[in-house]
Amino acid sequence: MVALSYKRALAIIGFIALTIFFAVMLYLLFFRQPTTPITNEITGGPAGRLPPIGTGRPGTGPTGGPGGLPIGEEIEKEKPSKEANGGLTEITPIISTLTDAPTTDGQTVLYYQPTDGLFYRITPEGQVNKLSEQVFYNVSQVTWSPNRSAAVLEYPDGSNIVYNFQTKSQVTLPKHWEEFSFSPDGNQLAFKSMGIDRDSRWLAVSNASGGDNEAIEPLGDNAKTVTVTWSPNRQIVALQREVTGTDKQEIFFIGLQGENFRSMTVPGLGLRSQWTPDGRSLLYSVSSPANDYKPMLWIAGASGENIGANRHSLGLNTWADKCAFTDAANVICAVPQELPAGAGLTPGIAATIPDNLYSVNLNTGEKKLLAIPSTNITAENVMVTSDKKWIFLKEALTGNLYKVALP
């Protein structure tokens, strides 16, 4: 009885051991995952280096980071071109401080610096010189003469002076004169003489020192509809606009001798304009329901019997005062990268939208992208040197000056 119990116990133990053996073998054969040795070498390149850019693909395992790139790597960014060639283009600050009223004499940029009240000249290479030692604090408006030798300076209290940077002399003008424009030769001024009584408000001209005054047209209660702007061919001294519908205006051309020039109808509101260098045409922008009240650039004849002739849209949503002429037939414009509806009537909503640069041939209407600035800027002034080598821009938010090289 004892021997039988002993044998039975051994048999049971042997069965259990055999069962465990077969269970282990089944696990090793069918269920265990293969392992690889742990190593510090990253595959795909020499030891100690990252795999080459572009070896990662979306969904390929632990090496794939966001966008499918290997973790810790970046896409190589497009390098901006040194010159404006239609793509991303290098834009370089030449003055990193607040400037005002920048203009070009064809080679350099002249500007007013409100922080110290001085006028300066800067070359494309960045060399800065004072135009004068005379300090002018709190100037609110600067109107340059065509050859940049003089300027009318207006102050918040209504005071006005003409300062000549060549002779270092100045002349005081009456306080009730405003909105000045120099004649093409710089020897005369056109302006609004705004007397207290409506009958004493006139469009007038004088010599560059404020003498020899001559009234041209009565303004009455219409002064706000008149823009003083002397044409380069001397025919026109001002434009008057009259709204004639919900989406159009009639523009009247005012000459020195009371000439009866024909008027011109423009398809929109919010007129801004510039004369072409020869004075024969007017570059202007208006906004209408047809383009969601975004500013649209137009060109039209504006001299003698040619007024209003060949009017056509240039197909760019920007303002005329964001453009600069390289000659009578070509212009370079800062064009917002996008514009919300209504920007033509309320420009402030576009104050932070960056600009690209376009060139436009006014004869053919051909336009092309010149540059996408490497730094986002919203241009307030666009200037081109006479040798067509540089574009200068004032950034609207900071007042800094930038330059872009032309090919």
TrEMBL record:
<keyword id="KW-1133">Transmembrane helix</keyword>
<keyword id="KW-0472">Membrane</keyword>
<dbReference type="InterPro" id="IPR011042">
    <property type="entry name" value="6-blade_b-propeller_TolB-like"/>
</dbReference>
<protein>
    <recommendedName>
        <fullName>Dipeptidylpeptidase IV N-terminal domain-containing protein</fullName>
    </recommendedName>
</protein>
<keyword id="KW-0812">Transmembrane</keyword>
<dbReference type="Pfam" id="PF07676">
    <property type="entry name" value="PD40"/>
</dbReference>
<dbReference type="InterPro" id="IPR011659">
    <property type="entry name" value="WD40"/>
</dbReference>
<feature type="region of interest" description="Disordered">
    <location>
        <begin position="41"/>
        <end position="73"/>
    </location>
</feature>
<feature type="transmembrane region" description="Helical">
    <location>
        <begin position="9"/>
        <end position="30"/>
    </location>
</feature>
<feature type="compositionally biased region" description="Gly residues">
    <location>
        <begin position="56"/>
        <end position="70"/>
    </location>
</feature>
